[in-house]
């Protein structure tokens, strides 16, 4: 059985209050504190977090709802969220909605009922009804990427400007035709695809800036069929594919290798997000860094500030993006 605070106090010849102060970083003489911490360590003392929560009326827990754990973007985010929360004394309770609108709401409700002090989401639900649902929980919420409303804080990069910068970079390389690959647009009427819609808006704005460049949007899940058609029949002009996600670019790279195409000799390719797996891919994918770790870290900091502040105003926080010029353009 684990040693208790009272047993530590007895072994050290001090009061229970002194032990608690030492364990919680309070004011205790150096020698006494060192003695208490050593006894606690030698006897594998573990704090009773449930009792502490009941005493202080706080759980020190954050709920995190993620879409899936197959996409490296979400895996990177979760890793950063967990580290940042732990650094600030919070525990994370991570749940996966598996891209289900109904399940996402059920999980958020469950986290609120389990007394999470705040909830982080990259929402796939949208609209006034979902906004009202989140606000009715009376629990601090921060969105990562996909915005729900101005009444709920969102941390993101300026996706529209980032995409315009990506197009500018591709044009600077002499490409005459650019195809924007954005499969999530197929579901934009039903799901929250705010991030990808902003990227599409940036691409369409860029189309007006470069009238001499042939530009086209492919917004469906079966995009590889159109890529194949373009590569077999329409490579008369220097062509580049700009993908609204590195995972889509990697799918094109895999297909190209199988079909015998060389990148960037036969066509150019650019991704979005700079997921960590790119370090193992050759050729090195040119992409847009959307500051995955920075966004996740800032979201945690902002959520905790919301939790611990008596007065808080929701906001939209934009972090910097960066064009990473590598080997595929």
From TrEMBL:
Domain HTH lacI-type, residue spans: 3-56
Alphabetized UniProt keyword annotations: DNA-binding, Transcription, Transcription regulation
A molecular function GO annotation: transcription cis-regulatory region binding
InterPro entries: HTH_LacI, LacI/GalR-like_sensor, Lambda_DNA-bd_dom_sf, Peripla_BP_I
Cross-referenced PROSITE patterns: HTH_LACI_2
Highest taxon of the lineage: Bacteria
Entries under SUPFAM superfamilies matching the protein: lambda repressor-like DNA-binding domains, Periplasmic binding protein-like I
PANTHER family the UniProt entry points to: HTH-TYPE TRANSCRIPTIONAL REGULATOR GALS, LACI-RELATED TRANSCRIPTIONAL REPRESSOR
Protein name per UniProt: Cryptic asc operon repressor
Protein's organism: Roseburia faecis
Lineage of origin: Bacteria, Bacillati, Bacillota, Clostridia, Lachnospirales
Gene this chain is encoded by: ascG
């Amino acid at each position: 059985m684990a040693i208790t605070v009272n047993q530590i106090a007895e072994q050290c010849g001090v009061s229970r209050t002194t032990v608690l102060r030492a364990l919680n970083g309070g004011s205790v003489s150096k020698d006494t504190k060192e003695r208490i911490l050593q006894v606690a360590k030698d006897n594998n003392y573990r704090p009773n977090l449930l009792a502490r929560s009941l005493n202080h009326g706080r759980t020190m827990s954050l709920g995190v709802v993620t879409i899936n754990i197959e996409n490296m973007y979400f895996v990177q985010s979760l890793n950063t969220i967990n580290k940042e929360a732990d650094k600030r004394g919070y525990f994370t309770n991570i749940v996966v909605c598996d891209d289900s609108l109904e399940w996402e709401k059920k999980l958020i409700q469950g986290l609120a009922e389990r007394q999470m002090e705040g909830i982080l989401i990259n929402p796939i639900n949208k609209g006034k009804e979902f906004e009202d649902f989140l606000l009715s929980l009376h629990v601090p919420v921060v969105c990562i990427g996909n915005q729900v409303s101005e009444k709920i804080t969102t941390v993101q990069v300026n996706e529209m400007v980032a995409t315009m910068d990506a197009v500018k970079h591709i044009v600077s390389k002499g490409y005459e035709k650019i195809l924007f690959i954005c499969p999530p647009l197929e579901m934009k009427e039903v799901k929250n695809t705010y991030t990808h819609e902003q990227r599409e808006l940036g691409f369409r704005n860029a189309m007006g800036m470069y009238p001499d460049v042939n530009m086209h949007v492919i917004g469906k899940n079966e995009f590889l069929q159109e890529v194949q058609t373009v590569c077999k029949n329409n490579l008369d002009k220097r062509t580049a594919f700009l993908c609204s996600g590195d995972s889509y670019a990697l799918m094109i790279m895999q297909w190209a290798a199988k079909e015998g195409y060389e990148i960037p000799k036969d066509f150019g390719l650019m991704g979005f997000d700079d997921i960590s797996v790119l370090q193992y891919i050759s050729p090195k994918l040119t992409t847009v860094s959307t500051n995955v770790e920075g966004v996740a870290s800032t979201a945690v900091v902002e959520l905790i500030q919301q939790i611990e502040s008596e007065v808080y105003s929701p906001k939209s926080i934009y972090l910097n993006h960066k064009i990473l010029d590598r080997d595929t353009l």
